[in-house]
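Cross-check.
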Amino acid sequence: MEYIRRLLGMFLKLIYDVLASTFPSEPESISFFALSIIIATIILKAVMVPVTISQLRNQKKMAELQPELEKLQKKYKYDEKTLMVKQQQLYKDANYNMLSGCLPMIVQLVILMAFYRVFWEPAKYAFTDAKAFAEMSKNFFFIQNLEEIDSSMILGVIAALTTFLTSFVSNLNPANKAMQNQQSQSMMTSMMVVMPIMIFIMARKMQAALVLYWTISNLFAIVQQLISNFIVAKNMGEVK
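Predicted model, tokenized:
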């Protein structure tokens, strides 16, 4: 984890240096520091695109299995245990990996934890010149200093809202719907409510820089998931 923190710190500093040396003056409403966070987030999410493509292939395979799943669900409607066993066998025969969707989430959590320490100790991981870092502009529109907590909580609300939308859009994926039973649907609905609340509570105690990272990451994920939903839905239509 320490190695990841240092890499992220160096990466953030590199982007900041490129911006500072490329543009003659810093925008008044958004600092180079804020832009560095946004650009770093987008690049990191873009690097994860191959994993997302693999996930999409898995979802398309799930779409192809949909007719067989519906048959099983009708046949074993009143036998939940047998239905689960038959579904697992179907996934195994089709070489479908149910855990493929977990990898992007795990990677994002690792990066989130690493960024937390980077923003907590920027002089150690990114901006080693403490004096220069203290004099840097760190504003982001209504937030005067991204190092501090957003007292207005506007960014926290946006982070919570985008977290909800990420889960909501993901839940609309036809492949995900095909996998869900009543229990999993109830769990997903609960997570859609609980996660945004948790993010909002965390945003009240975290530096605004970290909340900005989470928000930008969510926005990228929402667009990505919408594209995925469209491709999977189209594939399911072709299969039918």
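The first helix runs from residue 2 to 22. The CA atoms of residues 60 and 201 lie 36 Å apart. Passed to J.P. for a second look.
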